[in-house]
Amino acid sequence: MTTPAVAVLRRAFPRATITYLIEEPFRRLVEGHPDVDRVIALPERQKVGELAALVRRIRKEGFDAVLDFHGGPRASLIAFFSGAKRKIGYEIKYRRFIYDVKVPRGRPEGPIHSVENHLNLVRALGVEAAEAPPLKLPKAAEEEIRRIDRIWKENHLSGSKVVAVHIGAGNRFRDWGAGNWAALTEMLGREDRVRVLLVGGEDGRKREKEIRAHTGEQPVPLAGRLNLAELGEVLGRVDLFIGPDSGPMHIAAAAGAPIVALFGPTLPAHFAPWRAKAVLVEKRLDCRPCRQRECAHQDFRCILGITVEDVLAAARQLLKTSS
Questions:
Q1: Residue-wise DSSP of 207-264
Q2: Residue from 239, 179, 176, 240 nearest 215 by CA
Q3: What's the CATH number where 25 sits?
Q4: Residue 128: inside a domain, yes or no?
């Protein structure tokens, strides 16, 4: 969701060198992006010496500005020691002293979407951004595209209405449950010409087996089998994406897929699919949003209160308009 801000930054400074610092697992989300000149990928965990070496490398670059889209402890440290002439970040307790320009992460009058939050960091450089661009991801490489072509051919997906179902969740607070996903997948499989793809991370393979055991192995298993660029290529071809508020949901938005999004503890006002054709399924409860540390009711009613029928009705609505 930082890509609209990066696009505005590129438009404002067409001759600038834009370097994007990102953790290694997510490198393929920005590598080859038309608005990014270089990518520095760092491991999820770094020893102190490795972090110091990275900081020395960044200081040698002599950056004019550092924009901290993340705001986490490591990102803040890198910004602090970067040596950049201007350091811009969010006004976060205990870390606000790090930045030359501090931007509120939110607004008093109500929720603000994450895309707009990131844009506000660019605006802090004096850049005008009246309208936020759509999300934009780099194209998959030729070999990645050929691999997805093979998946389509081997599973006879051409001519079908292809629905990608993200069966994972960022945490238990957003987890709709294997039983719900299995029931939904089975019902979707009965719809005319519908084929279901199961997508998710490596940790989704066990759930994938449970779902396929319940549905007669009809859905195509892709959990843990795609890198992020390949996932983007898949979601650019499907007729519908269904999943919780998650990274894959935003990749689907960037790919232009129609979306059925399940919102449990989070609010669409913060994280709705950006500029996407989407139906948002949620239960309006006083306990939302929450910090996702402990369920106030101990039953995760915000996500588990969403019924299979709720999601199926939303899916039918979007599939009907895509036919």
A1: HHHHHHHHTTT-SEE-TTS--HHHHHHHHTT-SEEEEESSHHHHHHHHHT--EEEEES
A2: 179
A3: 3.40.50.2000
A4: no
The reported pTM is 0.94
Domain of residue 102: give its range.
3-123
Cβ–Cβ < 8 Å for 57, 45: no
Tracing tokens 């719809």 back to the chain, one arrives at: 191
CA distances from 250 to 43, 142, 193, 236, 299 (A): 23, 23, 26, 12, 27
**Do 231 and 92 fall within a single domain?**
no
Whole-angstrom distance, CA of residue 193 vs CA of residue 272:
29
List pLDDT tens digits, range 235-280: 999 999 999 999 999 999 999 999 999 999 999 999 999 999 999 9
Question: Do 176 and 261 meet the contact criterion of CB atoms below 8 Å apart?
Answer: no
Q: Clarify whether residues 260 and 305 are in a common domain.
A: yes
Same domain, 83 and 161: no
Domain end, chosen from 94, 123, 152, is at 123
Domain count, the chain: 2
> Using the 8-state DSSP alphabet, how is residue 275 labeled?
T
